[in-house]
Write a structure and sequence with these properties.
Layout lengths: L6 H14 L1 H28 L2 H17 L3 H15 L5 H31 L2
Length: about 120
Amino acid sequence: MRRAPSPSMRFFLDRLSQEISLDGVTEMVRIFLEDAPARMAAIRRGLANGAHQTVRREAHALAGAASNVGLSRLREAAGALQVAVERSAVDDAAVETVAAALRDSLLLATAWADAHEGMATTGG
């Protein structure tokens, strides 16, 4: 299933493309697509093992990565998980909120990257 990127994500990435180049932004999105699932897996492992600092660190990194590519829902969910860990209030529901936001974000980021891949290399 493909979803079109949100208008706010498109605006953010289009603007960023003007500042650092379409190639640069496409590479950032591709790196996000490669790294984000591993961060989510580390969050799940950390929660299962009681390694709350790992959960906090990975949630922080995931929030930052999401922010870098304009994925506000994921940024907010991962940021909320980080705060929950800092307050010793983390639970499975908070992790599942991040996981759901990540699933949606991966679809959006893939759609954006696929739509811009050829343009980045051809200059169109």
